């Protein structure tokens, strides 16, 4: 395997090509998002609440880069699951252009999960 095997070739589609899709510009906003799960304490055998997300708010505007950083277990993936609609069991709201997210908008949503993003050899 050559060292070039990790590089990605990027091409710009030509105008009028079938692969071009008219994608609307969407501002995503999440307000007061919280998520709590029930866990069983192995020491006491009691069921307890574990706070996964606690009153998080933010906005992602088209053309701007949003970076979520934090230690392992901080809730980054859980927040992305809520924002993308993969997780429905939460309190708060996720809005697209000021309106509640609908199933029709799912065709415009995607994100690359953390395990798939980078190669170890690239920095």
TrEMBL record:
Its Gene Ontology cellular component terms are:
membrane
Q: Which residue range or ranges hold the ABC transporter domain? A: 53-122
User: What is the membrane topology listed in the Swiss-Prot or TrEMBL record?
Assistant: Multi-pass membrane protein
Source organism:
Saprolegnia parasitica (strain CBS 223.65)
State the SUPFAM superfamilies in the record.
Answer: P-loop containing nucleoside triphosphate hydrolases
Q: What is this protein called?
A: ABC transporter domain-containing protein
Q: Does the keyword S-adenosyl-L-methionine apply?
A: no
**Which key words tag this protein in UniProt?**
Membrane, Transmembrane, Transmembrane helix, Transport
Any idea which GO molecular function terms this record carries?
ATP binding; ATP hydrolysis activity; ATPase-coupled transmembrane transporter activity
Where would you find this protein in the cell?
Membrane
Q: Does the keyword Heme apply?
A: no
> Sorted alphabetically, which Gene3D superfamilies does this protein's record hold?
P-loop containing nucleotide triphosphate hydrolases
């Amino acid at each position: 395997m050559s060292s070039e095997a990790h590089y990605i070739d990027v091409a710009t589609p030509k105008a009028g090509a079938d692969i071009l899709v008219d994608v609307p510009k969407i501002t995503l906003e999440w307000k007061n998002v919280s998520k709590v799960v029930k866990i069983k304490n192995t020491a006491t055998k009691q069921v307890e609440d574990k706070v996964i997300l606690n009153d998080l708010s933010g906005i992602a505007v088209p053309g701007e880069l949003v970076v979520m950083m934090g230690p392992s277990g901080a809730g980054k993936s859980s927040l992305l699951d809520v924002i993308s609609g993969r997780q429905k069991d939460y309190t708060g709201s996720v809005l697209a252009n000021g309106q509640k997210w609908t199933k029709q908008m799912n065709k415009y949503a995607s994100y690359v999960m953390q395990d798939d993003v980078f190669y170890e050899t690239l920095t």
